[in-house]
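Dissemination and training. As part of the outreach component of the grant, students in the summer workshop were shown how a complex can be specified as a set of sequence lines and then modelled as a single object. The example used during the hands-on session is reproduced here so that future cohorts can follow it. Participants entered these lines:
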Amino acid sequence: MLVNLLGAYIPQLIKTTIDSLQDLDQKQFVQNSLILIVLLSVVMAIIRVYSRQVIFGIGRQIEFDLKKDIFNHVIKLQPSFFNQQKTGDLISIMSNDVQALRGLGGFAMLNVINTLIAFAVIIPLMFKLHVTLTWCFLALIPFVLFFVFGLSAQIKLFQQKVQEKLGEMSNFLEANLSGIHIVKAYAQELSQIARFDFFNNSLKKDYISLVKVRSLIGPVMRVIASLGFVLLMYIGGQGIISKSFTAGDFAAYSLYIQKLIWPVATLGWLVTIIYRAQVSYKRIEGILGVKPSIYDDPSAITKTFFADDISVPSLNLKIHKGQNIAIIGTIGSGKSTLANKLMRLVDTNDNEVFIDNIDTKKITLSSLRSLINIVPQENFLFSTSIHENIAYARDLERDEVIRLARLVCIHDEIIKLPEGYDSIVGERGVTLSGGQRQRLAIARALAIDPEILILDDALSSLDNESCEKILKNILDIRKSKTTIFITHKIKIVYNMDLILVMDKNQIVEQGNHKELYLKPNSLYRDLLLEAGLEGGSSEKP
Amino acid sequence: MKNLELLKTLKPFLRPYLKKLFLVLLLLPLSSISFSIQPVIMQRAIDGPLSKGDFAGLWVFALALGLAVMFNFFVQIWQFWLVNIIGQDLIASLRLKIFSHLERLPMSFFDRTPVGRSVSRITSDLEQLSESLAGGLVLVVLDLLNIVTILVFMLYLSPVFALVVSAFLIPIYFLSLYYQEKFRKANLDSRQELAKLNSFLQQNIVGISVVHALNSIKKSMRIFDDNNKKYFQANDQSIKADAQLSALIELVSLLAIVCLIWLSLKIIDSTIHIPISIGIILAFIQYTQSLFEPIRNLTDKFTVIQSAFTALERVNQILEEKEDIFDIKNPRKIPALNTLENHPLIEFKNVWFRYSASSPWVLENINLKIFPGQKVAFVGKTGAGKTSIIKLMTRLYEVTSGEILLGGINIKDIAQDDLRAFIGTVHQDSYIFAGDLLHNIQLNRDYSQIDWSLVNELLSKSSLKLETKLSERATNISSGEEQLINFARVFSANPPVIILDEASAKIDVKTENHLQQVLTKHIKNKTLIYVAHRLETISHCDRIYTLERGKIID
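and obtained this result:
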């Protein structure tokens, strides 16, 4: 603001110095004025540096806060949300859209302030110099505004289209690159490239429309300024002839026009930024407005548990603390769903799941989830080191991590790697085999060692020998805790205190191995026999 | 300068646009001259008609000025349109090139590069390039050209004044150099941090069920916050540099004007003898503003242009990644099965393999023969090398030494597409593309190439239908159903060799039996290769290879 005031004052000085050039008596005055101008310029420069830093800093702060808010919001949403909402789109929102708002807060704000103040300060000064000329100059402004607002609607439209197309392209890329090994396996590279080209061309067309319209704004602004000079020359020139306008006035006026050019010229650019920011704002609001479908009831209480008994009355299920449980059943019989419900990763109905006789819906999610954890079927590992992956939920020292690695029989393989525990895992753990990924996932869960742990098909990729060893280790260190295995492996099922046989989302049979096996018409026995168990009913592990 | 090298990489893409570029080059000087001549017209007007009190003459000059302005206007628009169209075309070609290149890169690239990073290259990096290249770069050229024409006109009006003003260009040049380097570094830092941030976001979304299942939401938030702060700090640097430079330039331009006026004073004072007039002084004041304005714009655009070069640099990094598995010039065809007689269909000869020179050997001296119609299995502890053998067979990785022969021909001599159509693989994990199930099975092979009755048989016991819409991460179907799709994809195209890589790991027993039932008749003449843990599934195989630490021991 100060900057602009100084900026306006200096041309006045220049004007007087020029006028005084003619008069030899004023020599000293001219020299003093020049020195004054120099001093003021320096002060102005210093202030300008700080004001710019502050204003752009605001824009960046907005960016920081938005990113933080979006991430913290999104991470709490239920996993099923991300099937419909494409990942690529979200990344686009987090980066491109947030950036648009940053531009608004920083650059745009700088511009608006500059423009307003410039006009407020300079126009009156221009009037002081020459009334008619200034009116003529101002008369040009409505044309500018009319033109700018006319174009903005177009720009907004095209901007939206471009952003949508970018989101679509991101989604496609995300999908394609994650599944690249399948693309290669089926030699689909060419068809994928063709598909990409479709997105590409569609994006290009929209971009060209956008860019054509946008490029009109600059020249229009400049031409208005230049026409201002034509006016200056003609009308001001007449003034000089009639001696009502001095050379100094002329100089000052041309400086003022120059000062107004920049804010007016970038007004157009500003319009684009504002519209872009509007579109982005809507998208960000959209994301922030999504409510998690699984959330804490306002009256939910935080609880630490003692007995850890789980009961699901509708399924006639009661699990006591310390039991080892197996859940088996055909595809789609509801095993994973049940497991997820215990932890409310899939929402439950009221009075469906109880822990210590309290409805899980009445407990805060954080206390529920510090009690129960799941090792899910999909072995997702983060792109960090093996150590960090195992220690993910708890920050652990190396010796702790090694202890856990030994429990899952993977330590020997890790130390063979060139960087050992510091080796970075590829996004889906691709450089590790399926069995290695599974073991890491188990180690990760064991690091937390919650009161109740569910392993959903977590030993499927292991050979029999490893499976047995690891199973034994898990059960040993979790002696007093409840462990639930969802599995197809008979070797696991044998040893469990309680076996639940599921079909069509119901528990159709429960008991231990002996009871179930000997039952007439037991589904359990059918499942075992189908798995090719040799030896018949008297076979014991 | 490194930036020049980067620009050179764009050269091949520009070839189709030569005519348009030529037109642009023609228009540039025109627009520049019509811009820079305006103060001269003014000077003529001031020193001519104005000093003589000639109203009519003034009118002529005003008209001349007006014409120059309008001419400049139209030329500029034409110019911008052309440049932007070229620019967008260029970017689109670049995007396609990068994606095509990416698709063909070897698996080793994908193993070490997070998906988020590649996506960000093609989308936000190129968007950055597109925003700044056409607009920014061309405006820069225009500004530079303006500076040249202005200098020319200034010299024409008054050599001494021109020299004085030009002297001020020197400090500006050095200031710009100094700050440009600062910007470049700050920009690179900031984009790196941004990519890290995006990558973290992407991973957390992909793995969100794990994050929830392990109750680590708070930890993720914390890590994100740390990275976010780093990004913020990286940006601070570029803001500082930007603010300082633009303030300095404005200061210099005012100092230049002061100098001019002081000089004029000396002249009028008669201490220096140089021709001068009010018109010249005023014209020079205008030129000074016009001269320094492009430079100030240049620095305002610095950030934008820097980001363009940074983006270009990162894009080039991808283009420099090599495809390392190529088809030879005239790939040989796989011989028909009936010509093989007693020769092995697939043979490994002294094969050694490791993922890279710095990783341990995964396979050591593997020798084996697989005959047509054989059912073969590879077993062994996890990590013994079974999956690697499979990857080598379909040439997803290249053997480090030794040979793999298919029908007596080294697989390196066979076209990769042919190889993979011949050997189908059912993986243990799957990938589902968005679309309906039919598309997911057909996957751009011909409709007629797929045995749809087999597909329907396979799907008969599940809830899936060909019209079922599937989504990318496929969590609206169970993992057992995903595997069914995997099987359907491979078997329905009838390849002579099928690899099953622990394919039944995630299927329950009933479904597995269903699969066996349906597929038994289809596999009679096929060569099957199993990788498995469970001996139950492979008990019927003709030959079992046991692997331990990369060696066959049975």
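Chain B has 18 helices and twelve strands. Students were then asked to discuss how this feature might be tested experimentally.
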